[in-house]
Design goal:
This protein has 174 residues and is mainly beta. The protein has one domain (28-170): Jelly Rolls (Sandwich). It has helices at residues 4-11, 146-160, and strands spanning 35-36, 41-49, 54-61, 70-72, 76-82, 84-87, 90-96, 100-103, 111-112, 121-128, 131-134, 140-144, 168-170. Strands 1, 2, 3, 5, 8, 10 and 13 form a seven-stranded mixed sheet that branches. The longest helix has 15 residues, at 146-160.
Length: 174
């Protein structure tokens, strides 16, 4: 028996599947080091796509940590593995283990980790475009993008003699 849904399905165009451009890349949990930034955070940069301005990282925040007020020029996707955190601007929306968060471009916020946390807060982020830090008047105080986070991560790994061979970097040789 045909329904409107069946008709819609049969009228859909076949999907275009591009040819594979290489093998899937895998990073195990301990394949890349977490770098202690000395400010209450540790980062594990996992992928940078310089052609798209994408940077993917895990960040571990100490209890009581606060990120500078900022916005992103592109969307951000986040998954929380442990701990809890929220935005100062939306204190009733608390991210906990298993939470997923989508941030649209231009959303101004201040990430806060409660000082009552009894563990590090571990969050995975996929960030498109620069992170633009601002002061209380909205003036830009700093910018961090895919290229700068790549340079910081590699530099700190080099200083500490840590291997980052598994880091996925796209577009560096263009």
């Amino acid at each position: 028996m045909d329904t409107k849904a069946d008709d819609a399905i049969t009228q859909m165009a076949a999907p275009v599947v591009p040819p594979a451009s290489g093998e899937a890349l895998h990073i195990g949990e301990n394949d890349l080091p977490f770098i202690d930034l000395g400010d209450g955070t540790k980062i594990q940069l996992q992928q940078v796509d310089l052609t798209r301005g994408l940077w993917v990282l895990r960040t571990k925040f100490a209890p009581g940590y606060q990120v500078a007020t900022h916005y992103h020029t592109g969307p951000v996707f986040a998954v929380t593995f442990t701990g809890k955190w929220y935005y100062k601007e939306y204190p009733d929306v608390v991210n906990t283990k298993g939470s997923y968060l989508f941030e649209p471009a231009g959303s101004v916020h201040t990430l806060m980790v409660p000082d009552t946390n009894d563990e590090e807060t571990d969050v995975w982020f996929a960030i498109y475009g620069p992170n633009v830090n601002t002061d209380e008047t909205g003036q830009v105080t700093g910018i961090l993008d895919a290229n700068s986070i790549l340079n910081v991560y590699r530099g700190m790994c080099d200083e500490q003699g840590l291997n980052y061979d598994k880091l996925i970097v796209i577009g560096e040789d263009l």
